[in-house]
Description:
This protein is an alpha/beta fold and 278 residues long. It contains eleven helices and seven strands.
Amino acid sequence: MKSKKIAHLNVYTQGTGFPILCLHGHPGTGSSMSVFTNHLGKRFQTIAPDLRGYGKSRFQGNFDIQDHLADLEGLLDRLQIEKFMVLGWSLGGILAMELALRLQVRVTGMILVATAARPRGNHPPITWQDNLYTGIAALLNYIKPGWQWNINTFGKRSLLRYLIQQHTATSYGYIAKEAVPAYLQTSPAATRALSKAIKAGYNRLTDLEQIGCPSLVLAGEQDRHITANSSLETSQHLKNSQWHCYENSAHLFPWEIPRLVLTGIDQWLEAHPQVVKF
């Protein structure tokens, strides 16, 4: 049965100043947005919730992807936040666009990371060897993050090769600290809600012209989950958008090249000060 009840979301907040709502992907949690919140929280108030069915935001029963929007609107009202910028990664970027359509007066700007209004992927078929090597690589990396022997022996042969291009200690450190716990805390209902939306052919391209706030769309050149071309297509349908594609990176590019990504975000914010002003 579909839920009509608003979920009370667990939320991680940092800093003070203009509010930036940071929305994680699938699987993910609010804490897995730390690559952004630890940086932006030095100048702004970052709000990173666990979406319904993720992290500590437990919820009984099935739900639809649209239910996340009611939850987020309820969270913003609970925190008495009227105007805010939104930063979304993957699924979080889809929800960011939905919020901008739903709350046009309140959303001042968007940063969309590895996402698209008509998401398309080109991921190859998954074999049993892929799953085996991924399990071993993830377990060993959780025990000993960034272990080069594990990266070379299992990591580069696992499904991680489609999520990252740069198999460095930095990227594997984020995977151990953020990705594995998030995966373990993602509910089957959350997975079903996302799968249902994808199978239904989610496509909001024609609606994007309604969004007038400035947006920054970032993509990884080798992203196999949501292709760089689909991110570019999204940017082209937004009125006031800047697009940037990072070479030699994939879906988890903020964990591969964090300094480069954060520098780009800082430059965009400096060029668009209106999105973070009360």
